[in-house]
Structures are given as C-alpha cells and as structure tokens.
Design brief:
The mean pLDDT is about 95. The chain contains one helix and eleven strands. The strands form two sheets. Strands 2, 4, 5, 6, 9, 10 and 11 form a seven-stranded mixed β-sheet that branches. The chain has a four-stranded antiparallel β-sheet with strand order 1-3-8-7, with no helix packed on it. β4 (about 35-40) and β5 (about 45-50) form a beta hairpin. With about 120 residues, it is mainly β.
Length: about 120
C-alpha cells in the first residue's frame, strides 16, 4: 500500500507561480511512476505530467508545456510540480498518483491517489 499526501495548492493571480508537492508513504520502493492530474469543474480529469523512477518524464497536456515542470526527490519519495506563468484555465483540483506497474504507467493507469489540492488562478 502507498499513501500520498499533496500540498502546495492555493490561490494566485495570473502570471504567478505555485509548487505542488506529493509525498509517498508505505511501499514506495515498488513505485514505477508518479504523476500529476487535474480536474476542473464540469471537465474530465486530465494527465498533466508524469515522471518515472528513472527520471524520464512526460507532459501530456500541451497547454502546460514550457510552464510546468515535474521533478522528484527519490530519497524523500516526493514528487513536485513547479507551475509558472499560471493562467485562469489552470484552475482545478490537482491530484497526485503513483503506480507500481510499468505497463500501467505507460497507459496512464494509476493505482494510488492522493486527496487532491486546489489551485485557483484569478485573472
């Protein structure tokens, strides 16, 4: 079992920055990948960025490329999402997820989920 705890959300004006953190507890040695997802009211959840245990990363949402950066501290079992140049359309609940299976990582299927942290960007 893996427990995920997110932090770092909040309210910011457009153009501002936030850094989200997600700490994993439990059987973290088995984690192949971790990712950040978001869901805005009335919209489907979308994958923002994922990072594999070897450091490989992917940004699945075109609108965040060049503005968001996912990183990890393996020693702390923590993943970060640095969000710069925030826009009102980035407003959403952001969720962290972790997956112990490589094939599921590649298909963006995750077993463990955090509770989410709200990000609100005002214009």
């Amino acid at each position: 079992q893996v427990q995920l705890v997110e932090s770092g959300g909040g309210s910011v004006q457009a153009g501002g920055s936030l850094r989200l953190s997600c700490s994993a507890f439990g059987s973290t040695d088995n984690i192949w990948c971790m990712g950040w997802f978001r869901q805005a009211p009335g919209k489907e959840r979308e994958t923002v960025a994922i990072i594999f245990s070897d450091g490989d990363r992917a940004y699945d949402t075109d609108s965040v490329k060049g503005r968001f950066t996912i990183s990890q501290d393996n020693a702390k079992s923590t993943v970060y999402l640095q969000m710069n140049s925030l826009k009102p359309e980035d407003t959403a609940m952001y969720y962290c997820a972790a997956e112990p299976g490589l094939s599921r990582c590649r298909s963006r299927q995750y077993t463990y989920w955090g509770q989410g942290t709200q990000v609100t960007v005002s214009s």
